[in-house]
Design brief:
mainly alpha; about 70% helix; about 140 residues; Arc Repressor Mutant, subunit A
Length: about 140
């Protein structure tokens, strides 16, 4: 693999994720939010609702921590819980009107940061990067 051993690749991917996350953490903190909260708000913006399992995975949190985050966001009127119409045992999480407002306030900030990150490569390179990362994620599981 053109001079890079697997441990180097894993380390580089980890370092890149950390650097990008740190940039987002600073940006979101300046807007009175967090990366965990942003991941959750943005994952709910498709209006389909998410289970707690999905939320834990999306927010990259252990289930108990995700539950605490949701509890806090429910208390802040950012999200609400509702039983699934097709399976009453399943609870889905949705954005509340206040959550929508916060999401809409944060979206342009995050989009601007993404545009800045995207400026580090040309369009072809970015498409190839996304393709390769998607391929890696699919194969790693």
């Amino acid at each position: 693999m053109s001079g890079h051993s697997d441990p180097e690749l894993a380390q580089m991917l980890s370092q890149l994720e950390r650097r990008v996350s740190q940039r987002l953490v600073r940006l979101l903190a300046s807007a009175d939010s967090s990366l965990k909260e942003w991941r959750l708000l943005s994952s709910l913006a498709d209006r389909s609702g998410r289970t707690m399992t999905e939320i834990a995975e999306i927010a990259m949190l252990p289930a108990p921590t995700a539950t605490k985050l949701i509890d806090t966001m429910v208390a802040d009127n950012l999200v609400y819980r509702r039983s699934d119409d097709t399976d009453r045992r399943r609870i889905l999480i949705f954005l509340a009107p206040r959550g929508w407002k916060k999401y809409e306030r944060l979206l342009p900030l995050v989009a601007e940061e993404q545009a800045e990150l995207s400026s580090f490569a040309d369009e072809h390179e970015l498409r190839e990067l996304v393709r390769l990362l998607t391929q890696f994620m699919d194969r790693v599981g």
